[in-house]
Amino acid sequence: MKTFPQADRIESSPRSHYFRIEGMTCGGCAARVEKALASVPGVSEARVNFSAETASVDVVDGGPNGAELVRAVRSAGYEAEPLRQGASAAAALQKTQHARLTQRRQALVTGIGLALPILALEWAGPALSSPQPGRHLWWRGIQALLCVMLMRSPAGAPILVGGVRALYFRVPNMDLLITLGVGAAFGGGFASFFMGGLDAFHFHAVAMILAFINVGRYLETRARSAAGRGVAGLSAAVPGTAMRVDGAEVTSVPVETLKPGDLVRVVEDAVIPVDGRVVSGAAAVDEAALTGESVPRRRQVGDDVRAGTTVREGSINVEARVVGAQTAVGRIVSAVERALSQKTRMQRLADQVAGAFVPAVVVVAAATFVYWLLFPSPAHVAATHALRAAISVLVIACPCAMGLATPTAVMVATAAAAARGMLFKDPAALERAGGIGCVLFDKTGTLTTGRPVVTDIVSVHGVPLAAAEHFSSVSNSATRPEKREMALLGVAASAEQFSQHPFARAIVAHARQRGAEVVTPERFQSRAGAGVRATVGAQDVVVGSASWLGEAGIDTAPARPRTSALADQGKSVVWIGLDGRVAGLLALRDALRPHAADAARQLRTLGVDVAILTGDQRTTAQAVALEAGMPEVFAELSPARKAQIVEERRAGRGRAASRTRGAGFPAGRPGGGVAFVGDGINDAPALAAADLGVTLAGGTDLAAGAADVTLMHDDLRRVAEMILLSRRSVRVIKQNLFWAFFYNFAALPLAAAGHVPPAVAAAAMMTSSITVVLNSLRLRKPTTDGTDLSTTDGTDSHR
């Protein structure tokens, strides 16, 4: 079970440093950089992402600074470049991959350009040779010269230098394997040239190995660049400058200089740089960058707009409310960056294997060479065959595929999810979501819009008339019942005005709209999921659930008959107690979210059970559940009881009787995990107790802190899409890991047996890495995966 977030806040938060790492060629490199960083005193955690070529390091107060961490990376044989404060790891990834792709393209052209004449001489050389003794191998000298040029060119030098550095720092990696293979082939070519002892072993092996390696690395870099394009695109969603309005003057300023309260002008085809509210003008705004919906929405005075969205028609002036990293798109980028810096359980295992893989391959290659020297094949010259087999073992091994298997898939899936408004806190959450077998929904603010309105005011004993005169501003001609009802509303609003519950905000807003007097209470007490108690005008006021009034010693029986009809209409009842007895009721109605019923149907299509956990009255909860298509309900729950039910479901003890019509708790998928979807303070314990906590973007900070996934635009259909994306991601990761391990365990014995020439081994290694990356790119496609997730009317539009 996840820890409750407040416990984490007691300790001092570590500082974080971010770096771009250069020189990594396989998952083993990432593991060694991570180990070097973690060994620095004061580092609490180090995370290195091979696919993104970044490192994230958390240090305790008084821990090492950035320079010390850079030295630790360099001591391991790699280079580290600190990312300046405020820079996005996604932007750094884009910059790195663009530079890397340019280098790979240059190496590819150079490698092929020098390899072709070497191969041409290999094929045509014998026919052009002079029959005179000592002059028949002149073309071998040209081949040797071209090989030297190839190894010193951009196609060979970075690899060979990297291999020598790896040997010097004792950090074996992919470059070391290639360097040993190329060195052995070149040495064999010289031996053949000068000594004639290695029959038919020529320099073309060097050319083909380096050519195939560079072709493979170029294609791999292109594929990885495509995988990271969605991530990098997020950081480019917000422009670098904005048009700030200061009176009659409009000036272009850097976005980072904006602050809340600034007025920003956004014209047609411009991107909105802040989260704010439209104060003048009207425009059609394309919100696809945040919601995935391509149809622009009309925004006018009073409407909220978000950074990263684009004005397609019209122009607006926007008052900035949130700027920089705290905007919606900034939170998306931060969430993706956090996800890229974390590792799944499978990735950690793969990195551990990759870290030990390269030394093992070197040992196998040496053993292969010795074996074929001692036990030569009758069909081959012993030294030639032994060297060929050893080179093939070195070249065919592919730790890169192991290192790319998980992070590339996570990168693509995380970016795809973010583009659809689903923010995963870390890759582990992405992994867990696919195993969900039961989703539990909070009602108020989750299944419903969270914008309730007061519909009925019911006075039971009412407010004493003397007090009613104080809390009511109705005219003198008003009847006594009208005055008592207004006073009841004023008393309740006065007690509730410091509460953050949606019902409390609705009561206060309704009281002020009606003109009831709202005063500051002298004493205020609140309990999440229950209600408030306050002293208002020397009167003891208790507002909340019936059980909350019962704890205060107030008998609610006199008002019970009045609640049934309200609850049958799907209305929520808030009880009001005054000086030890029930004074009246307030009824509120909260509309169901547009796609709540569709979300329930989609989850059942995926084989996931659904249920409602709510603190509301049983009858009200049943009415909402019927409308949402979720017949299983737990009602009148405290926050602690919600968390307890979640824990019982996780432990497999979820068959306890439901509190609605005796229904049993949904069984869910055998062994499936439990997700809880909520948005309020009283949902935090249940969110923390669940296998997967999901919150809405409009929820409280405490709920967001306890959640693993945030839905940015409150569309509950994304819950099913999230589960389906996770299932596909886990399946792709498993496919990648299976291929990476199967390839290496199948290819190495074949190479050691002498059945794979060095050039073919290089081509096979290239294919292995590319296969893993291309398979991960499939996650960019829509997540339906053959499952019908269309809405009940066959469309995906709002009802």
Q: Would you kindly provide a written description of the structure presented here, covering whatever features stand out?
A:
It is elongated and about 120 Å long. About 50% of the residues lie in helices and about 20% in strands. It has 27 helices and 24 strands. Helix 5 (about 140-150) runs antiparallel to helix 7, helix 6 (about 155-170) packs across helix 7 and helix 21 (about 595-605) runs parallel beside helix 26. Among the domains are: about 5-90, Alpha-Beta Plaits (2-Layer Sandwich); about 245-330, Calcium-transporting ATPase, cytoplasmic transduction domain A, CATH 2.70.150.10; about 435-450 and about 590-710, Rossmann fold, CATH 3.40.50.1000; about 455-590, 3-Layer(aba) Sandwich (Calcium-transporting ATPase, cytoplasmic domain N). Mean pLDDT is about 80; it is low at about 1-15, about 475-480, about 655-670 and about 790-799. With about 800 residues, the chain is of the alpha+beta class.
Question: Outline of this structure?
Answer:
The protein is of the alpha+beta class and 799 residues long. The strands form four sheets. Strands 5, 6, 7, 8, 9, 10 and 11 form a seven-stranded antiparallel beta sheet that branches. The chain has a seven-stranded mixed beta sheet with strand order 12-24-23-22-13-20-21, with helices on both faces. It has a six-stranded antiparallel beta sheet with strand order 14-19-18-17-16-15.
